[in-house]
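Entry 12.
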Amino acid sequence: MTARSASPFLGWLGIFRLGLVQASIGALVVVTTSMLNRIQVVELALPAVLPGILVAIHYFVQVLRPRFGYGSDVGGRRTPWIIGGMAVLAAGALGATWATTLMPTDFTLGVTLAVVSFVVVGLGVGACGTSLLVLLSTSIAPARLAAAATVTWVMMIAGFIITTVVAGKLLEPFSLSRLVEVTAVVAAGAFLVTCLAVVGVERPRGAAGGAAAVAGAEPPVDFRAALREVWAEPHSRRLAGFVFVSMLAYSAQDLVLEPFAGTVFGLTPAQSTRLSGMQSGGVLVGMLLVAVICTAGARSRLGSLRGWTIAGCLGSAVMLVLLALAGMAADAATATPTLRALVFMLGLANGAFAVAAIGSMMGLVGRGRGSREGTRMGLWGAAQAVAFGLGGIVATGAVDLARLATGSPAIAYGAVFVAEALLFVWATVYAVRLSREDTASTAIVVDGDALDPAAHEAAATGRS
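Predicted 3D structure (tokens):
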């Protein structure tokens, strides 16, 4: 009948549909972390630390991702968690917007509601995003993992861009009441798109899986026991360490790069913004290159996701060290082209490692004890969220301390870039160890039984 009925894996249309969910998450996240940030600081003249704390809260709440993943494991379906998580995220975005409108008249009430709302936003992102990645991981052919990771990441960025453009136009002329209306439109649209995107995508649990559950072949365990089982798996523990360290280095760049360009190289705000756009362009190119190469050469060394993860981390480390050296020898008149080239290459390396790392996570989510895919992905997602929450705070604080200690902005920023480079090297060590595990073992052990890779993929697919 259809291609899908002949294959247990989703086709490109199915991947695109799930990518729409990621775009919807991106649309609501950009409203709460970017648009409200600007309004609180500029229009309401509030301290910049306030939105910074609120954004950090939504990251740290996502430490609960393993619990959400466990819930979808026990229930055996991801779709209800995706739809429910999106509903919670939409409610949190509306609450955060309402809180912002209250701040000018009742600051205490507004901030209190904002804190609660950003907790809700974090819960929604964690519940929806974790189950979405698990559904993608268990529904896609291994050869398409890199491409699927790229599609979902690019569509999330598209969600950012489309929302900011459309919301920006709808907000003119600006008023707080109009802000609530625009957020409501975005929230309703994101929820509707998510519901339409996931309908019919998730395959029902097989009869064998249902019979096993009824017969009690694998008695359910509580969350803590399930998390201990996942943490006891060497590859799960090491991948969690890799995700935390690499994403700490990756996120630390966000709040440092533009101030570095302005302070050390004398770039104007418009020029530094274009520089940031150049880095984002490099990230996109790096992701697309890795996706194309890994999809076309899936059975060759060139198509190894782990190899691209290692190469991307090392490339990022090298570019950060070169940025530090360029800053210490900075001459705005002659060094700006070099700065642009280095920033683009940094983005290229970041994109390569990011999409390869996400693809590797998706490929490893089914390895280990059965019915733990959600808990496993939740563990890795929690590591990423905590790293993102810490990255900007640690990097900006380190710059301030280094400037006080040295009195030189170039040395201060250079020291932070070198520290980030060392984090990428540390992440490379994790990636190499994971790669050696794959190379050294010709079979995968699951619950004490040896399975060859093909059988493991079939088992992971059956458990979805």
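Annotation: The two ends are 22 Å apart (CA to CA). The CA atoms of residues 327 and 393 lie 22 Å apart.
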